[in-house]
Design a protein that fits this description.
Blueprint lengths: L8 E3 L9 H9 L5 E3 L7 H11 L7 E3 L7 H11 L7 E3 L9 H14 L5 E3 L10 H10 L5 E3 L9 H4 L1
Parallel strand pairs: 1-2, 2-3, 3-4, 4-5, 5-6
């Protein structure tokens, strides 16, 4: 990838990947890669912290799929923090709800980034539990965001959220 200037899509799903250091370094210098999927690996919070710093420097990446990985609240916070610096990412899949211990703080962080992000148009947060107390915060963020056009909250156990979104 570091020396390949034509690779657009990199799918590394279900490969038991846990170390993203090399890939992160290559991503800093790659300007052709537009999609990376890491679905179903062993990527945890520490590993995604390092990788997140890399995608904040990349201006070609449009899709990042981190679904079904044991990424902690800290890891998700890092992804979202570095999303503030990334001006190209349009689709983000954080469907890792069953792996997260503290869903409420994730919703708080998601809400804060949705309020300021201007490039993300698709957000996938399947299986993320959104309870009644934090629902207003997420709804306010969605109202303030003018670029998000696709939101997938499948299996998120939030039936009362529907009436506020439509």
């Amino acid at each position: 990838m570091l020396f390949n200037s034509t690779l657009n899509t990199l799918k590394l799903n279900n490969n038991m990947i846990s170390d993203l250091t090399t890939l992160g370094e290559a991503l800093k210098k790659n300007s052709s890669l537009t999609e990376i999927t890491f679905r179903g690996n062993h990527i945890n919070g520490e590993q995604i912290k390092t990788f997140s710093r890399s995608f904040s420097h990349n201006s070609s990446l449009k899709l990042l799929d981190l679904s079904d990985n044991p990424i902690s609240y800290i890891g998700i916070s890092e992804v979202i923090t570095h999303l503030r610096k990334n001006s190209s990412l349009t689709e983000l899949d954080l469907s890792i709800g069953k792996h997260i211990q503290s869903d409420q703080t994730i919703v708080e962080v998601l809400s804060s980034i949705l309020k300021i992000n201007t490039t993300l148009n698709t957000l996938i947060i399947k299986e993320l539990t959104i309870n009644e107390e934090e629902r207003p915060e997420l709804i306010d963020a969605l109202r303030e965001n003018s670029t998000l056009t696709n939101l997938d909250c499948s299996s998120s156990k939030t039936p009362s959220l529907i009436k506020f979104l439509v």
